[in-house]
Design a protein that fits this description.
about 25% helix; alpha+beta; Double Stranded RNA Binding Domain; four-stranded antiparallel sheet
């Protein structure tokens, strides 16, 4: 069995919604939230990691980007707090 370290980088963004913050991975259409920007980023990273693990374990294609028509950078620019690189690291185990 061999192990490989993988790093994926996606586009994430934070939106202010009332007193909380929503986070969205534009490349995977995965969302989360938090009381602070930091908490929203952490929750999104965890959600993306779990999603990728499930995709790889089950042979499901993982990319499913948000459509341009639904991209918050175009539709909710007034609530946009930050666009950031979302980096996810995890181990992929291969069996031969």
């Amino acid at each position: 069995m061999s192990e490989a370290q993988n790093q994926f980088e996606f586009t994430g963004l934070i939106l202010k919604e009332g007193e909380a913050f929503s986070s969205l991975c534009l490349d995977l259409d995965i969302a989360s939230q938090g009381k602070t920007v930091r908490e929203a980023k952490r929750a999104l990273t965890e959600a993306v990691t779990l999603y990728l693990e499930t995709c790889f374990e089950n042979g499901i294609p993982h990319l499913r980007p948000v459509s341009p028509a639904d991209d918050p950078r175009r539709n909710s620019a007034e609530n946009l707090v930050e666009v950031f690189p979302l980096r996810v690291n995890f181990q992929v185990h291969t069996l031969a």
